[in-house]
Amino acid sequence: MPIPLHEWQQRLERHFSQLASERSASGLPLFALEHGLTEDELEEIGGLLRSRLAGDFHLGSQWLVWVVYATEFGYDYYGDEYWPSFEERTPGWRERGTREQLRNWFSKFQATYHGVKPSGQWAGHFSIIAWPITHAILPRYLQGQLAKTLYDLRYRLARLENPSAEAVGQLLATNAWDASSRFRVFLEQEELAGRIVLALLTDRELEGQSPIYPPTLRRLVSDLEEVQNAREWLKETRRFVADRLKGTAATHVGTSVDSEFRHSEVKENAPAPSGIRPSLVLRRSGTSTWSVVLEIPSFAGLARLYPGLRAFLKTTRCRVAGAGDTWLPAGWLLSSAQRRLLKSWPGANAPLVTFERPNGTLDQLLNSETRLSGGPIWLCRVGADGLAWEIAGRIVRPGRKYVLLSEVDFPHGYRFLAPCGLDCEGINAAVLSIPDAISSHDENGLRQLGLQVARTVRLWPAGLLARGWDGEGHSEWLTTETPCFGIVHDHPLHTYGLRLNNGAETLVEARQVGSPVFVKLPQLPVGTHTLSVRATRHSDGAVMPPSPMAEGVVTLEVREPEPWVPGTTSHAGLAISLDPYDPSLDTFWEGDVEVSILGPAGHHVTCSVTLATANGKPLLSEVIGTFELPVTTEDWRKKLSQFLNNERHTWTYLEASSGKFSIRADELGEYALRLERDVKPVRWICRSHHGVMTVRLVDDTGNNEAAHCRFFSLPHPTDPVNLDTENALAGLQVQPPGGLFEAKNGDFFDAMVVSTPQIEGGLKGLVIDPDLRDLDNRAIPDIDVLKLVRSWSEAHCVGPLVNMRRSRIVNRLLNHLYSRLCGARWAEAEASYLSNSDSGFASQQLQRMVGGLPGFSAILRRDYERMHAGADLGTQWFAEVAGRYQVCSEKGLCEFALQLASHPVNLLLLPIPIDGLLLEIKEKGVLLRGARFVALLSATNRPGLADGTLPRWKW
Amino acid sequence: MVITEVSANDVLRLCRGALGLSDSSDGTIDDAFLAASLRRAAGILCPCSSSTLIGAVLDSLNYLSAEKGGIAERLAAAAETLVIGGDLLELNQVTVDDPAVKGTWLFAAPPSFVERPDGSVFIIGTVPDEATPLPASLSARIVYEGFARALSPLPSENIPSVLRGLGLLELSKSAWLKAPKPESATELRDSMLRRLSEQPPSGTVPDLSILDPGRNVDYYGGRWINPTNESGNYVGRRPQAYGAPLWGFASLVDGRVGKFMDFPLKGTRWRGCDAAWHLQMAIDHGRGTPQRYRRRLTAGGACLDFFSPLPLWAQRRFVVLGRPALREQCMFSYWIPERELATEENFLRDRLWLVRRED
After folding, report:
1. How far is it, in rounded angstroms, from Cα A95 to Cα A117?
2. At what angle do helices A5-23 and A39-54 cross, to 10 degrees?
3. Which of A735, A820, A822, A738 lies closest to A772, judged by CA?
4. What global pTM score does this model have?
5. ipTM score of complex
6. Which residues in chain A have Cβ-Cβ distances shorter than 8 Å to B137?
7. Yes or no, beta carbons of B110 and A387 under 8 Å apart
8. Is the N-terminal amide bond of B206 cis, ω within 30° of 0?
9. Which residue from A57, A113, A101 is spatially nearest to A702, judged by alpha carbons?
10. Do A506 and B2 touch (CB under 8 A)?
11. What is the pLDDT of residue A765?
């Protein structure tokens, strides 16, 4: 006989009371998923609850059963929508239950049993569904991601000094930046994530108390191991970390580190190496000429060390000192190490890498870590491969060849020095050939140049090549490696005294001249270490005087290994640039992603995209295009546009929750990018069924107030119609030809332009001519016109022809705005030029209409490409021309004019008195027309935004 | 004791462990060790030149082997084999530091695999900070075939699916074995002659060496000469101020260079040496002295012995379809299973214009 619901309620009350009591000493929170019910029991209570809804019964008396029931939906949640599945499988809920009620029951659970309370930004934005999803601990769709993240971080996990739940959680939260946004939200609950990881990897009890009810933990582990590859990832991770997390001293596959050493020998207060120190290398560019190349390590490791830095790096452009004025794309230093040719000598006084925007943490590191070593001379040793790497210690050896760089002229009279050419301004170069035998006179001469001669002891990494080895003492190692060194001398010696950091000296008997000895160091912890070797000449222990002749010193910078991330193209011959660096699925589908790919000629790359539903079911897998390398942004835009114009793709996109963009170049590798929907707390979703389009509002804010919804039709894009929120939540059929749907609830906002497939009036109906008369009839202020431009241009788009139709509206709005600001005749001339930009007459007409002194517009026309050098330099140029021709002497206003002419919507985001500035600029018609003239020339010369109305300058 | 004195053998043993190779206590440096060292160095140094890579590994092996000059030669051969096997990519016309300068560099290939006809997979590529991109359970099963790495599936194991799941890129045989478009020896030779004739005069090319088609096709090394009074068109190499000599096609009159065309040709993906070797095969075929190979029948297949280098795209076939074999009085050998033998001999005849030597 089935157990009635009230007994289930009592049983669950007893269960959670007992669990809460057991856990009270530890302070650990409880999760509703820790209900301890079997699959059959869950099915049974589901049936009982549904029957309860069918009758007219009070629901609150079984609140705990409802909490468990809702939590199970959270466990199966796939990151898309919670309520449709809940309501569909719970008939009667919409009529008899409320979301608010469910939130109250979860709150009651939290208060009664010390249950977990959702926290963080995501919980704030999704204030109701955050409860069942958080109480589901680790929803199924995040389980594979957790296993993969643990696998990627296995080295770091294995070396956590204090593997507490907090430390593990923090490690995951800081380093899982490649994960999906929902997974990152899960990781924001650092302690919770840490507890699950400890339980998954060690099965141990924490302070005698299991962090999760054991049957629930077994369920999680069992489900997790069902996910493809997760079992293998977990197994491998456990192999690395199990012992360490259990608290033994072993650090890595059976090798132990002397504890005394661990605590005493790492340099006191020495910061962990940031790993961003650039290396200087010279490369031959002619028989007696060299080029200077700077090799900059990837900043990915740094981004792992400093939370928040990654977001900055992927959105901020950088510049390399001495390598020209070009700003390098955002994210340039995140993918792999980079090299840049130096055209002018940057000197040692400034950092070699600078970013467009300031960042406290990074600026400090750049200042200290990315400078050249102190000048005025730099020494580079010519290797057997013809490259000359910098020797930081400036030590020369007999019989070797070097290139010496100097900021000052070389003194005369050095017979080893022969001037040579260098393709770098501001620095002199000479080849330094050290003879096999050096007299004391020569040695003094070299010393005056700032160099030292080493003769006795040579150390080198033996067996395994050391990273960053400069041949004279600087090396980089991984925590997983056992460094070995060879030591050899060319003068009779008795012993070597070796010392690691400040540890005790180890004496090793020296062999005969020319015979090496080898020494092994233990695996070293992260940090900077020093291995010094002191030579003893005689058996009586007489030590040679300290000098480079008698000592060898090697610096070992030790770091954690960087795990390989599939889908990245580190040093495989492909240089891929994406702008923005990590677009959403919506941004990608609207064609707002610029892609360029550099690579070897003769090779092809295939760009493709896959789409999937919320539960991972594949919807589409298609090639966007196959390109011959290199791929320019123009090539890309052309193929993407063809792809996006395919109506079939449009409908599939509407169904998709996520996607993957990949660039595949066979043996050169593959680049893969996860594409996710922008899931906002308030959002429109659009579906098409048999050609009929419906939009539906999703409001997950949990606010008591209803969202405010408006609609602007495509033919009347400035005339809003208020929508009934209840109807919007239930779903609205889109009337042809469609329009802009806006919704706002509190601080949350979403807008979507929908274009329907139905065409009214035959082919003519393809093009919709927007009616903007309302703008003048209602005397709408300029700033509101600008806001309308923003609404239309920033909304996401769905449906056939939508981009073309939206562009037309945005262009017309812009033309209207510029008509107000620059005059109606100017706006007509702009439209005429845009309709035929190849026409010399139209461009001359524009040039004439700029006004002011005739030379002003002529110079702008001649030099407008200077704007492509970057916003700073472009503004500087424009302001200088405007000043010279007495158009405007205020640089700030010149910059405002350029922004208004090129990216007007951007101005709404800036903390500036925009109303006042719009009035001021109207008084400076020549300035704004000049700025628009430059913007139009630039936009039509290089395909610009909004069908060539706006240029692609970077602000 | 923190710092320990160790023997050269100990160092090698530690290295083998770090490189994911089985222990070998006799202190010998085998091909698998050289290949693994080069792969690791490539993960650190690439993009770089071949000499940088070889030089760096050579320095780290200093004093560790009694084999003096031999190691350098073996490393050079290993690097070439890694290029053929796809672990290293020799890419021309590629930009690494200066967008305005395109050069030829070695790159470390990303982790990938190619499925073989027998169901095993051929593992390609390196990762910078790890000996292998594979988890321990799989890397322990890797079989080293000279410089190459292969992985055989366990019963009922779908190894391609496992590797794809781990993020390795699956390369189709057609993509990986991509070869130039089929053409006859005459077509290739004539097309190169036409291109050479369109070149401007080259001026003096000092220290040119050429492949003399008149010399024994079975002794590649003996075919290289410095021109004295030769006239005609020759595959050759010209030294450059820095870097390895460049491959090309030269037109000579009385030993003096009239025109010189550098290989690789612009817009092609093949290496300069591949283009040169292929052209020499066409020239030799046209002269009635085609290059030759030898077939030695063995259990389950045959060893094909070669006396001159083969282009990369041809050798890759044999790496995938067969495996490198110990050479016997030849330049190199591959073992090919019986079922593939006829197809591959046809390939040698039709695409490289080789004939079988009957010993």
Report:
1. 28
2. 130
3. A820
4. 0.74
5. 0.88
6. 232, 235-236
7. no
8. no
9. A101
10. yes
11. 67
